[in-house]
Every structure is written in C-alpha cells, then in structure tokens.
Amino acid sequence: MSSYQNYLVTATLLFSLSGCTLASNKLEPKIIQKQEFTKVKTSEFDLENHYIIFALEYENQNAFDDARHVYLSLFENTNKYEYLLRYLLISFNLKDYQSVKRNISKYLLSNIKEEEMLLKLYSLSLLNLSEKQSALIYAKELISKYKNDLNYELLGSIYIELKDFKNGFLQFEKSFLLNNSENTLNTLSNIQYYYLLEKEETKKRLETFIEKNGYVFNICLQLLTFYEKDNQNEKLTPFLKKMYFDYEENKKYDLSLKTKSLLIKYLAKDNIEDAIKFLEVNSPEDVLLIALYQTSNKMDKAYSLLNKLYLKTNNSDFLAQIAIMEFERAENKSLVINEVILKLDEALKSIDNAVYDNYFAYLLIDYDKDIKKGLRLVKKALKVQPDNLAFIDTLAWGEFKLNNCLEAYTQMKRVVDKVGLDDEEIKLHWEKIKECKK
Question: What is the total count of domains within the chain?
Fold first, then answer.
C-alpha cells in the first residue's frame, strides 16, 4: 500500500463526527473485537495516488464537498471501502444524510472490516432523517454483530428518541458495565431520574460510584443537583465538605476551589456565621470572607483582611476597596476625603472598573475636588454600563456643578422617571437641578 493510502486509512480511523446529537458522538468503539473479516475484491486504478493527493489537498483547503466526490470516484474505480467510508464520513459531517443513506444501502456488505462503521453511519443518518424505526432496526443489527459501549449508547439514544425510556436505560446500563465512564453514568442517571422517576435508585447508584471511584467532580455535581431537587438540604453541606477536604488532601486545588465556592454558597444561605467560621478555620485569607464580613456587618474584620491581602499581594483592587471602606466608615468624611482620593487615584492606574470609576467620580464632583476629571471618569463608566442609573445620577450632578443646567436636568430626569424620589440623595439632586434649570 502506498504512503498516501496508509495516511488515508489512518485519517479515516481518526476522523470524528461533529454535529451528532446523541449522548456520545465518537464513532470508534473503545473495545476492539478480534474478528475474521471477508476480503473485498478490489481493482487496480492507475490514477489512484493522484486522486488521493487531490482529495487530501481539497481537505487541507476545507473544500470538503470536492474532496468527498474524489473519494467516491476512488471507491468506484478501486472498490476499496476505505474510500467509500471517507466519502460517507465527510458527507455525514456536511449533514448530507440522504447521500449517506443512498450509498450505504447500495454498497453495504456483510462481515467486511468497514461494516461496523457503515452500520453506525447508516443508523445515525436515518435518525437525522427522522426515520427512527429504520434507524432502530440497523442499530439492533449493529449491536448484534459488534457489542461495545458506544454501540450500546447509539441504540439507547435511538430508544430515547422514540421515548422508549426503559429500553434506552437498559442499553446505557450495558454500556456502563463495559466502560464505567462518568459520561455514560451521567446520561444513565439523567434517564433514570427524569424519565423513569427512579430517584432514590439514581442517587444510590451515584453514591456507590463515588464510594468506589472517589469524588469525580461532574458526578458529584449531578448528585448534588438531585439532592437539591429533592429538598435533601441536610445532605448538601456535609457532602460538599467531604469533597473539599478530599480535593485538598489530594492536592486537586482547582477542584477544591470550585467546591469551596459552592460550599460557602450553601452555608451562607442557611447561616452566614457557619460560612464565616468555616473559612476562618480552613481558608482565613480567602477573599470570600471579605464579602461575608461586610454582609454580616463585621466591618473591622473586613477592613483588617483587606489590608492584610493588599500588603501581601499589592493588588490594586484591594486598595480601591480599602479606600471605599475608609470613606464609608468615616464619621467625618471631610477629614478622610483627601487620603481616599489619593488611594483611588493610585488604584485606578492599574485596574479598569466602571463601579470604581463612578465612585471616584462622585467623590471628586460632590466634594468639588476636580469636577471635570469626575465627569471624564463617569462618562468612561457609562460607556461600559450606559443604562446604570447611579452613573447617570453622578453625570447629572457633575453637569449641575458646572452650571450646565439643561444637560443636568435631562440626565437627572432619566433617573427620576425610572426610580422616583424615594431615595433622599436623588430627591436632593432633583430639587437642586430643577432650581438650576429655572
């Protein structure tokens, strides 16, 4: 066999089908069955190597329609089924299911080495053509001859399409017995939980898998979802804690971080103090603690942690938060305004944040420190969030301070029309701006 033909056969085996809507879109089986195949009689074709070069070049240029027709010509001239298979794979990817159906029905032979792939493509194409019963017939023929995990999943997926959930479940269960795959288990569990309504059995299966295989993240998430749907809230945080400590112990820090975020969410939902205590013991420098401290009005602790993190990381985001907290906590704000402005000015040199820009802008405008700079900052923020009413209020106040009364009125009216005058600051701005306009 020429080097071009060797390349072609290898490429065919590696070719994956995109666009398949089934649970598994890989057509190559994981379990290779040893089998004596019937040899197909082939013909010599003088231009074979030239045609292969043309076909490969078309594929390199993404001219797949041209490439597939060259492969079909190669097959018609040589009767070599690797060329037919290549034509069919490309046709399937191009969603030309009719061509796949027509050519397989014309050329399908029993017990040749390409038969499994041909039956699989045939069944998938029939399914995509909504010929579900015919797809089922050929999927059954496929599994009768080639028993492997992916073929069971194909048959199971067709049963699901036919809303025969029991048989669909049985086929995925057979696949799972062969591959013990988390992806197969996810599909199997969804069928069992949502369609067969065997909810407790589903959760038990997942729990057993985790006991034997460890805390596989996607499987754990699925089990947590089922706990939540069934209002088994008492199981959520203990299970998440086990996940977290397991990932920490095994140095799977990316997974422990994701798990910790979920755990804190559920802990804080029930009792924010529990969430705080957990982080103080297990992750005392976690940024999540800052938000929890602020929510529970522990401002001294939040401020202390912010300063600690800033000294450790020199992160400008922490500096901006420190400045804002210093201003908000100050009893006499005029005494701290200059220091706060210096910190915000320094922080915003290296970060781009519309909320911080607006906050800084408002301080500069409201305290008459630099109204023009304040307007530049708030206009920058409005480019990011053009409908943010707090930003528009800042803009209106800045225009008022520069005595641009009509523009101030136009902008402030947008705010008042949306939220009314319940907020005291908005009410004050509105009254001042109205007087200015008169």
Answer: 3
CA atoms lying within 13 Å on the CB side of residue 295? 12
pLDDT digits (tens, 9 = 90+) for 377-424: 999 999 999 999 999 999 999 999 999 999 999 999 999 999 999 999
Q: Is residue 31 domain-resident? A: yes
Share the mean pLDDT of the chain.
Answer: 91
Q: Counting Cβ atoms within 10 Å, is residue 379 exposed (0-12), middle (13-18) or buried (19+)?
A: middle
Q: What is the DSSP annotation of 56-91?
A: HHHHHTT-HHHHHHHHHHHHHHH--HHHHHHHHHHH
Q: Is residue 321 part of a domain?
A: no
* Tokens read off for 393: 């209020």
- Choosing from 133, 162, 191, the residue where a domain stops is 162
112, 130, 162: which is the final residue of a domain? 162
Neighbours of 280 (CB within 10 A): 14
Domain co-membership, 2 together with 144: yes
**First-to-final CA distance of the chain:** 93
* pLDDT exceeds cutoff 80 at 5: no
Residue 145 shares a structural domain with residue 37 = yes
Note the pLDDT tens digit of each residue in 239-248: 999 999 999 9
Region of residue 385 (phi > 0: left; psi between -120 and 50: alpha; otherwise: beta): beta
Nearest CA among 119, 184, 171 for reference residue 145: 119
pLDDT of residue 364: 97
- What is residue 23's predicted lDDT score, i.e. its pLDDT? 35
Which structural domain, as residue segments, surrounds residue 435?
A: 365-438
* Cα angle 329, 345, 415; round to 5: 70
* pLDDT confidence bin for 10, thresholds 50/70/90: very low
CATH number where 410 lies: 1.25.40.10
> Rounded to whole angstroms, how far apart are CA atoms 150 and 16?
13
User: Are residues 151 and 9 both part of a single domain?
Assistant: yes
* Band (34; pLDDT cuts 50, 70, 90): low
Separation CA 408–CA 390 (nearest Å): 14
- Residues 256 and 404 occupy one common structural domain: no
Rounded Cα distance, 196 and 189, in Å: 10
